[in-house]
Amino acid sequence: MPLTREEKSWVLYDVANSAFVLVVTTTLMPVFYKGYAAAGRPAAVATGDWGLANALAALVVALCAPLIGALADYPGGKKRFFRWFLFTGVLCCLLLATVERGAWFWCLALYVCARVGFAGANLLYDALLVDVATPQRRDRVSAAGYGWGYIGSVIPFVVVLALLLPAAGDSGLPPGRTKVGFILVGLWWLAFSLPLLRCVRQRHGLAAPSAPFVAAWQRLRRLLADARRNRPVFLFLLAYFCYIDGVDTIIVMAMSYGMDAGLSTSTLALVMLLIQVVAFPCTLGYGRLAQRFSCRGMLLAGIGVFACITGVAFVLPLVSDLGHRQGLFGLLALLVASSMGGVQSLSRSFFSRLAPPERSGEFFGLYNVCGKSATILGPLVMGLAARLGGDARYGVPFVLLLLVLGAWLLTKVRPAAPPQPR
């Protein structure tokens, strides 16, 4: 059965927001900030401020997400909070075009607010999955979101590259054209968000109390205090924390491995683009296979692929022949593209079955915190291995351990009863 109008409208938000991550966060902002907004500041200070700004954005989201999610469970709350975060993110993305040379504080302030808006809107977007799709359709719908999101990031990425590369030089990206890139991403983000704003509605929720902030806080405290009664939820969150840390570490470190393999910057940009394109059909495939074999079974298969990637990553630096090393990196990139969207999308749909529909905001608030917090251990160990042992590959066995532990814990989660088709 094809996706319904409401499901398509929900999926299109992944098309909308993916451009912000790939184009702004990953490609434009690091270069624009250090080369233009922070011009005149010592390089070490500028780098430190950039790191602190990213940490601040993550901290704000981690602290606010559970309470925002709990408040969103009241009637109309998901859409209301979603609009606030969406418009904050889009507006700050557009305002990045107003940053002048040397205005480092204004640049970082806008960037942090845009990141918080992006993350907050994503939290509510995830929570709306239970309102949009029936349990038996969530694997497919969630996978469609991630899959089309990859294509949604590629189109503006190619447009912005075509705009920037002809005028790029050794001094960095041209500031004027970079600002146009910010505007293009902001407009893309807003335009593809409109179908969700118009067509998606919140079906599940709790009755509004007289003191919503107090009631939401009390609900959150009870949920955390009664972990035993909510054992499947917390067991899954622990499993998710482990395996998604391993997955994210591999994704984050992949480009660094590509540089070590001798690939040029332009080649790495092409590899990044190809990963997005290959991930599109593979993610949709995971969604369809989950309907046939089970969501958990396909999740374990995806984690298994990333376990195999750790083997390739460990061997890669030992290969002396440049051609063979680049071929192995190509295999690593292909494996990452084949399963990263599948693991991420099926994790979302699996968790949606554990969360009571009327409290999905509260539960996805915790899911969001686990996802954001799970980008610490793996990169930290890889970095320490490189600094202390002289080779980042000594941290790879720890990443494998995270994947194995997460997979084992996932097998202990009691699955929900299979839903009956309507």
Q: Can you give a write-up of this model?
A:
This protein is mainly alpha-helical and 422 residues long. It has two domains: 1-203, Growth Hormone, Chain: A (Up-down Bundle), CATH 1.20.1250.20; 227-415, MFS general substrate transporter like domains (Growth Hormone, Chain: A, Up-down Bundle). Helix content is 78%, strand content 0%. The chain is built from 16 helices and no strands. The protein is globular and about 60 Å long. The two termini are 13 Å apart.
What is the correct CATH architecture of the largest domain? Up-down Bundle
**What's the main sheet like?**
none
CATH topology of the largest domain: Growth Hormone, Chain: A
Q: Regions with pLDDT < 50 over 5+ consecutive residues?
A: 417-422
Strand fraction equals under 5%
CATH superfamily of the largest domain: MFS general substrate transporter like domains
Outline the secondary-structure elements.
Blueprint: H1 5-37, H2 43-72, H3 77-95, H4 104-127, H5 129-132, H6 138-164, H7 175-191, H8 194-199, H9 212-225, H10 231-260, H11 265-293, H12 295-315, H13 322-354, H14 360-373, H15 377-389, H16 396-411
Helix pairs in contact: 1-4, 1-6, 1-7, 2-3, 2-4, 2-9, 2-14, 3-4, 3-7, 4-14, 6-7, 6-11, 6-13, 10-12, 10-13, 10-14, 10-15, 10-16, 11-12, 11-13, 12-13, 12-16
Brief descriptors of the model:
single chain; 422 residues; mainly alpha; Growth Hormone, Chain: A; 16 helices; 78% helix; 0% strand
Could you give a quick summary of the protein structure above?
The chain has 16 helices and no strands. It has 422 residues and is an all-alpha fold.
